[in-house]
Description:
mainly alpha
Amino acid sequence: MDINTPVSMTPWLRSPSDGELPLLPDEQLTVGEVASLVGVSVRTLHHWDDVGLVRPQSRTTSGYRAYSARDVARIHRVLVYQELGFSLTRIAAILDDPAVNAAAQLRQQRGLLEDRIGRLQQMADAIDQVLHSQESGLRLTAQQQAEIFGRGWREDWADEARERWGESDEWSQFEQNAMTFSEADRKQMQEHGEALYAEMAEAKRASVAPGTESANLLAEQHRTMVSQLFECTHSMQVCLGQLYVGDKRFSAFFAGLEPGLAEWLAEVINANARSQGIDPDHAVWE
């Protein structure tokens, strides 16, 4: 599995250049030479020395730090763990644990890196899919739309939405995000949406009042769900609530779950927005 990682992200991940020989076991390097070799700053190496993370045992005749092949190997291991998100304190604990077998530790590092490579490859594949869809003009299929929005979704709604919002940043973000979802992701979103709307219908039947803690929680869950497709602010959510009530197709969809649900949901969204400092009467799409 090959990923072209930018050198600026991992300067230490490189093969020796032409004419560059590996460090010999008895060779000693200055801090400046090591900094150039592994791609970190001299200041970083000084800090690691001060905190005991990588402390060279030798000194030059002038009293400067002298790094051995073993010191450089430890630096590389530090950099691997740092790339994986470990703190310096945690890295020091791992490297200095006398109970840890060095070979087993390296194998563990390799396994962690392979996991990360796999995740990065998935991200790269998703980006390729988005680029391909943009370049070829592909759009979500009706089945993909239904998997995201639920069984009641109609393809002509998407066409109308594209005509209304197709030039907006949110629509671009929506299409890019939606195209990266796997079939399992879309199914999970659909099931989550159906469960959330069922919970809302039950809350309305139970006369949960807008503005209460439980109602605000439902509003935030709704906003989080929408934000999986594009970043939805409280003001934008108010606009969606207005659409649910004002568009007969949306209100009919919600009425099929519970009579008056669209109006109740809009009131819940408005009350929650007020608690966040948004005036629903002046809410805008931003």
